[in-house]
Amino acid sequence: MPVSDPDVLPLLSRGRHRSPRKGACFMELAGFLAGERWSDHPSCTHPLLARLARGVNDVTSDDARPRLAPLIPSVIGLTSTDPLWDHAISVVAASAALPLAPEERQRALAVGILTCDRLLAEAAPGVDDPAGVRARARAALDGVPLADRWARRFAADHGSGRLTRHPGTAIVDFSVQGIAWSGRSDTDEVLRTLLTDAVVVCRTLAGREQEHVPELVPGDWPPALAAARV
Questions:
Q1: Are 151 and 110 in contact (CB under 8 A)?
Q2: What are phi and psi of 45, to 5 degrees?
């Protein structure tokens, strides 16, 4: 049975939880508020965006994790079967990690960006730049010219090929880990900005960028979340 609307917000914490009494990760709480069964893989959010949210939740420090909570309503009902979303989320994640990563990791991320940029062009022929994602990819690659050249040589040597599986899950995981291991003092803020940017891009692709996103206020949850469902 779906969980009823809570009177008390469960504490955001790392990993999966058996029930809201044990705490909640970002996506468990999103599904909880959307009225779904308790799970960290709810259907209310695009699978790759949800994977990014789980990753960001888990590597964010305990002190900073509560600052992710206001983003939760923005992912509820934000899903699509359009392949553009997978390409776009991957580019957003890799572009955020690229300037922070060591050289060998930069090369892998650059290959991922080039691959998804090509997939974007193929999936949206005649569309200049859906949600500004291709410009984001170009800017990220311009910032690491050595990795960009290496990735282009790699693509030329190995050919574009045909993917049997979208690289998005690997790109997202690799990107989140790269940011978390960068050693920067502002890692938590970089991760939060990454998740925010991915949400903004997805809402733009969905044509929902102008919609009001409900605030995470307990008394407002039932009507606000009902309106947020698609």
A1: yes
A2: -135, 145
Q: Please state, as a whole number, how many other Cβ atoms lie within 10 Å of the Cβ of residue 190.
A: 17
Q: How is the chain split into domains, by residue range?
A: 20-79+209-228, 83-205
pLDDT digits (tens, 9 = 90+) for 167-213: 999 999 999 999 999 989 999 999 999 999 999 999 999 999 888 88
| DSSP string across 122-182 | HHSTT-S-GGGHHHHHHHHHHT-HHHHHHHHHHHHHH-----SS-THHHHHHHHHHHHHTS
Distance CA 54, CA 48 (A): 10
Q: Please answer whether residues 214 and 74 qualify as being in contact, where contact means their C-beta atoms are separated by less than 8 angstroms.
A: no
Q: How far apart are CA 206 and CA 82, in angstroms?
A: 10
- Bin 222: left if φ > 0, else alpha if -120 < ψ < 50, else beta: alpha
Nearest C-alpha neighbor of 52 from the set 89, 4, 13: 89
Residues 6+ apart with CB under 8 A from 152: 114
Euclidean distance between CA atoms 141 and 179, whole angstroms:
17
How far is it, in rounded angstroms, from Cα 107 to Cα 150? 7
Contact, 191 vs 199, CB < 8 A? no
Q: Please write the tens of the pLDDT for every residue from 126-163.
A: 777 889 999 999 999 999 999 999 999 999 988 655 66
Instruction: Kindly report the backbone phi and psi dihedral angles of residue 187, in degrees, each rounded to the nearest multiple of 5, phi listed first.
Output: -55, -45
The Cα 2–Cα 17 span in angstroms is 16
Global pTM exceeds 0.85: yes
Whether residue 227 contacts residue 87, with contact meaning beta carbons closer than 8 Å, is answered with no
